[in-house]
Amino acid sequence: MGEITVEVDGIEHTYATEEFFVCDHCDHGWMKFPDEDSEACPECRAEEVTLTAEQITDYPKWLWDGADNIEEMAAQTEHKTKLLRKLAERGWALNEPPRDGYARLTRPAEQDGNSDEIEVTLSEQ
After folding, report:
1. Percent of the chain clearing pLDDT 90 (strictly above)
2. Domain ranges within the chain, ordered by starting residue
3. Which among 73, 64, 61 is positioned nearest to 102, based on CA atoms?
4. Rounded Cα distance, 57 and 95, in Å
5. CA angle 112, 117, 120 (to 5 degrees)
6. Residue 85 — left, alpha, or beta (φ > 0 → left; ψ -120 to 50 → alpha)?
7. If DSSP codes are grouped into helix, strand and coil, which group holds residue 10?
8. DSSP H helices in 58-97
9. Spatial distance between the Cα atoms of 41 and 34, rounded to a whole number of angstroms
10. pLDDT tens digits for 29-88?
11. 3-class SS at 115?
12. CA–CA distance, 43 with 27 (Å, rounded to integer)
């Protein structure tokens, strides 16, 4: 699990990234969760795996919290719009339609430019 930081209007936004792997042996695909120590395939336990994508989860449900007027609400909406466009420029796309206030964005692992680095370390068993 890594992270991505995007700066918009002088404000840094940092998102934790989740990693999606595919087993080179059995083609099983899975999302690695933060509490998992190993990247070994959960199906066949092979350690030959490929990081295929990253995912971030955005929770904009409280976008307007703290706004005192409509102008502040509009400014917060415009800031979020700039942030989403910057993420799109960096290769992020909507993974599935947002629901329950969550939006999941994903990008292929090979798109790791713009100083976002993906590091995969296979743990020994």
Report:
1. 37
2. 2-108
3. 61
4. 10
5. 105
6. alpha
7. coil
8. 70-89
9. 15
10. 888 876 677 778 989 989 888 888 888 888 887 889 999 999 999 999 999 999 999 999
11. coil
12. 10
Angle CA 116–124–23, to nearest 5? 65
Average pLDDT over residues 92-114: 81
Give the tens place of pLDDT for each residue, 113-125: 444 433 322 222 2
Are 79 and 9 in contact, with CB atoms under 8 Å apart? Answer: yes
Buried residues in 86-122 as b, exposed as e (16+ CB within 10 A)? ebeebbbeebeeeeeeebebbbeeeebeeebeeeeee
Distance CA 120, CA 87 (A): 22
Residue 100 pLDDT > 80: yes
Asked if 118 and 51 touch (Cβ cutoff 8 Å), the reply is: yes
Pairing of strands 49-58, 103-108: antiparallel
